[in-house]
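Trying the structure run again after the queue cleared.
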Amino acid sequence: MTNLTANERRVVRRTSWRLGLQVAGLVLVVLAAVSTTVLVIVIRSQHAAGVSQILAAVHSVDDVHDAPAGMWVAVAHHGALETSADMPTGLPDLDALREVAAGGSDVRTTVPTSAGEVTVVTGLSGDRVVQAALDPRTGHEERERLVAALLLAGGLGVVLAGFGGAWLARRAVAPMVGALSLQRRFVADASHELRTPLTLISTRAQLLDRHMTADWGAASPDRVQHDVDGLLADTAALTAVLDDMLLAADARSVDPVPVDVADVAADVVEAARAAGERRGVTLTRSGETRAVVLASTASVRRALTALVDNALDHADGTVEVDVRVGSGRVLVSVRDDGPGLTGDEADLFRRFASHRDEADGDPDRRHYGIGLALVAEIASQHGGSVRAESLPGAGAGAVITLELPAAPRQTGR
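Done. Tokens:
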């Protein structure tokens, strides 16, 4: 989740909660169906057990005082009728008593009473006519306890299912969103990284075309050869950028090699010199003539190219690339004489953080705020860092310094 943008994290949260609610809804439907089935089974079981208890009481009770708890009994003997003291209104069922007394078999009826509708069984127990009915309130209380337990357990289960579903959904969705984020980043990185070398190649080709047409005969062969060599070098650099991006996309680790940052800086300055001339900016190279680090050559070139390209966008007239070695570190400082920094330094190295207008710098180029973010990533991958600061004085420019660990036994000169 740490590599996701704020918007992507919102999408993951929204999707996970939506899936969590869907899981909770599904669990709620299942629990409702299960609870309904359980209640139906319990009600039928209670009814069957109640009827069995009533039948047993009818054929065993001799006196109303022998009645089991929760049961109402009426006993008719020799024209006298005795009933339970708490028998509700509606009982006893006199018609059923008379029918059994006349010589009939057991009679089962359903009678509405003040305690609710009850099942009544009337039969003979010796020379007595016994009528029994089960108090429905006992069954109702048991069902109410069962419903309360089901509601409590079901509600807790639904809540846990919702949170659990959201958690599992986030774990399931985050890798997919991360993969889409990596794909988006790769496309953005490829577009940005290929734009600079392609711009340099286009500039070289335009200069060569001018020397071969308008300046034909006036330009020296050495100058034409220089442009051709520069064109070939820029093409090779473009190939190296593609290789490095493919390596960066590979999950397997790549062993670093000794890279002379001073040589790479000189090559980057030479490659960007034509673009600087077109913008009226002079590029200079200063500092150490040898500064070796353990890294990927293409990665170092990409970082320095991005720094120089950024400086050209802001410079009024000069850009200086300075290479220094000290305390086991190699420092590459790129200075420009532009307006300096106008925002938070940390914001400079965040993706898509460019706040420049379309009219700033080259009007034919749109600024996406990717270059310095890539520099920061390359520095982090190689155990280094990058920082930016404005130079003292109003409009004195800015300097961005890339710091990388020097190769073992590397010393300054």
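The first helix runs from residue 6 to 58. Worth checking whether this holds up in the mutant runs.
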